Structure formats: C-alpha cells, structure tokens
Amino acid sequence: MGGKPWAGVCKNVGQGICLVTMQKAPPFPITRAALSGLLAMFVSIGVARFGFAPLVPALAKAHWYSAAGAFWLGTVNLAGYFFGAAVMRVWRRPFPAKPVVLLFMGLTSAATLGSALNWGWGWFGFWRLVSGITGGILMVLMAAAVVGRAPSAARGRVSGITFAGMGAGTAFSAILVPLLLAKGLVFTWMLLGLVCVLATLAVAVMMPAARIEPSARHESKGLPPRPVLLMIGAYALTALGFVPHMLFLSSFAALGLHRGVAAGAQVAAWLGIAAMLGPPVLGRVADRFGFLPTLGIGYVVMGCAVALPLLVDAQFALICSAIAVGAVALGAVMLVAGAIAGMVPAARLPGDWGLATMVYAVMQALVAAMFSNLFHITGSYGLLFAIGAAAMVVAVLLILLSARLNTKVH
User: Pfam families attached here (predicted)?
Assistant: First the structure.
C-alpha cells in the first residue's frame, strides 16, 4: 500500500535485448505529501466550507441574504459536497493526482473570490455549489493521493497532518473572520480568497506526483467489505455524538447555565483547538497501535465526553468535554480513512472512502436538522447529549465487530 520499494529498469544493450536491472524506488516524500494534504483540506473544507458559518450573521445584517437564504446556501454547499464525493466513488479512469488537485483548489479559490461580489442569490449559490463539489472531491482525492500512498508505518502521521487541515482552516476562519468583518464583507472574502490562492501555489510547489488508479468497475461493484461497511456505520453514528457539541454546547454554557457569552465562547474555542490538534496526535497513536484500535478507544472517550455534561456542568468539565469531542470527532475522519486504506486494495480506496464521506455528510445534515427541531420542541440540552452518548455506545460496538471480522478475513 505504501508503494513498491524496488522497480525494474530496462537498459537496451543492443540487438533488441533488454537488460532489466532492479533499482530502489525513491522514498515517499512524507513531509511534502502531508503538508500538501493539509493545505488542500485547509482550503476546501476549513475555509471554503466551514468558514461560511461565521459569515452568515454579517451577510444577513448587510442584507446580502436573509437568514433563510443563508440556510439554503448551506444546503446547496452540502449537496455539492455530496455530489463531489459521489463522483470520486464512481470514477473509473486513471488520472494524475497533482494537476487535478491544483485544478480543484484553484476552483475553490475562484469560488471564494467570486463570493466577494454581491450579484444576487443565484451568483452566490453557484459558487457555494462549486466549493461544495470541490470540497467533496478533494476530501476523497487527498486520501487516495496522500494517505493511500504513504508507507504503512507512517500512514497515521501522514493522515493526521493531512486532515488537521480541516480543523486548522475552521479555527483560522473562526478567529480571523470576526476581525476582518470590521473592514467589510468584500474585504473579508477577498482576503480569504487570497489565502486560498497562496495555499494552492504552495501545493503546486510541494506536492509529489502521483497517479490514481481506481478499481475496474467489476472489482468495485457493490458495497465495501463487511468490516469496512460496519466501520462506515460507526462513523455515521458519530454525527449524533458530534452535533450536540458542535451546535449546542456553547449555547448550553452561555444560556442554559446562564454564564454568559464569554463562557460559551471559551468552550467553543477549546472545541476548535482540539479539532485542529486531534488528527495529528491520534495519527501518531494509530501508527503505534493501529487505526481500528485507536478508533475504538477514541469512540469510548468521545462517548464519555458527550455524556459528561449530563453528570457535571462545571465550566472545567465542559471544557474537558469539548476538548475530547473535538479531538476525536475530527480525528475520526483521519482514522477511518487510514483504516480503510489498510483494509482494502489501493484501487478501492477512493470508492470506499467516497462512500464513507457521502454517508457522514448526509447523516450530519439530518442530525443537525433533527436536533434543532427536537431542541425547539423540548428545550432540553440534556436530551441531545443523552442521544449522542447512546449513539457512541452503538458506534463502539460496531467498531469491535468490524475489528473481529477484519481479523478473520486476514
């Protein structure tokens, strides 16, 4: 999975005779590949996708779009993300990875810059759709081009650095956007677009060449192997564990416990920091103990952390809960991608990881809508945390079953 250590080289010695000599293949450029993956995730997911949320209040206040319009723009972006991941799942022709990565990072940059123009909902909706499609494609593509090609002994480190880009981009947007908005929406979009352009240029310099060879249609027909399918099911259930913290923990601290905006912001900040640092830390752990065991233990920790506010509501406890959930929820993206890379042939990775990406995206959107309506009806934060904790128990059981089946297969 990490590339062939030796390669045959043909040397023509005359009269149609080819002398084949074995030469050691060049080592996989771990640092350049991992940093390229980080920047691709930073741009396509952290800035272009999750960076939209801090802008919504300003867009509504400036009368660019109503709150309902902003909601539909988010829906359009999610639809594009799903479509992009679906394209990578069904794509069957080989292609060079680096030019394609640069193409879609360039389109993401164009979408961010294009959003600076207030030319109506259709214009903005088009660019939100484009950024969603590029995000879905790059999420799957970087797993195949970087994580799937990394040596097995370093796969955790490489995937951890790669997927840390999501948390880094989200934290970057959450911190920088409120400061930039003082200079206006146009300035904010333009600066975010410039950051995307600079990141794309850096990837153009750093990213090693790679060729993606998807499975033939008959080889990838149907669902993934059962161990992978069970792991994808567990991954989808983590949306039930993550959404209460992502959407409601800050509000719980600020409003539910009457501690004010500062307390809510403190919890949200720690959640973002953990989301940024979780993938590289868990990647190191996975290199030592394996992806599936690390994922299983991580889900146990996350389940306990989701349930913690039900038992203790002290501010320190909420911060600890936010750190654990943020680290594992974002780290799980890397762990699932790395686990799939170790369980299936390299050619199946884009399709199977594409399916996992699609399922999680849909599940997260459905859970967010369901929990929002449930909270509107009941006004209970505790009910949301309880449902999330119960879902994590089921996720742990699915991971245990996946590990057991995977051991039998191998």
Answer: MFS_4
